[in-house]
């Protein structure tokens, strides 16, 4: 539904990246479609980190890749600093992509195993003809010694070191927005903490704006200014990290938090807040897409899609019966 996710959008002058009613679908054969992202909206202020969280298959990574037009969205709007990205082609799209870079989930498979580290990081500057002066700076910035790392290949490094190389490759072109697509999920817990601290340090040093994708709500909360919760291609809730943990409003958010060990919340066990498996994105449920797994679902949930509504100064939810006190504002039409 057009505009169903736009309640949280800021004034244009405050926004670096704005996404409105994003739709991404894929063919599934026999005339069917995978409804991967269905009308998602969000914005990101300059210097902010927006976290996007949800179960595998919820559409969070698809939404993130659509920012790069990979794949190109079927509908909606993506604006970077006021410039519309959807519909761009050829050289114009190529130049715009330089302002957005990605860090991928699997650091080892995302690096060419046959190339030396210096060539991997320098590939972007060579393509753009901007010179390789920043290559050593970026390697040092991510904690690698250019003198010893430059001539080695990815297989000679650990997973955490490979992710540092990936980060250097993403930053060497001086992007405005860095999309982090589950950048620590393939790493050991101790290494995860190191990479998250590194990203926060680099964000401050280079004035980066981050979109951080993960399925672990605890990780996302710790690195994000605000958190967007997605389920089956739809937005469930948006709030600051602290608010989301203190007062989760959507039943799905509560279930995610209940599955986090030592969340500190007096929540029922996760299996009482969510049941069964997610429905197929080829045939999503009518009304609220979470209703088939929600213990509080009512007839209205099947008949009417909930719209994003504001329930607090920094909290919005798409639910007919949010689980938190506070005055609700009218749905956005």
Automatic annotation (TrEMBL):
Source species: Streptosporangium amethystogenes subsp. fukuiense
Gene Ontology molecular function: any one: ATP binding
Pfam families in alphabetical order: ABC_tran (PF00005), oligo_HPY (PF08352)
InterPro entries found in the cross-reference section: AAA+_ATPase, ABC_transp_ATP-bind, ABC_transporter-like_ATP-bd, ABC_transporter-like_CS, Oligopep_ABC_C, P-loop_NTPase
Family as reported in the entry's similarity comment: Belongs to the ABC transporter superfamily.
SMART domains registered for this protein in UniProt: AAA (SM00382)
Record bears the keyword Oxidoreductase: no
Protein name: ABC transporter ATP-binding protein
SUPFAM superfamilies: P-loop containing nucleoside triphosphate hydrolases
Keyword presence, Nucleotide-binding: yes
Highest taxon, organism lineage: Bacteria
Keywords: ATP-binding, Nucleotide-binding, Transport
Domain ABC transporter positions: 17-257
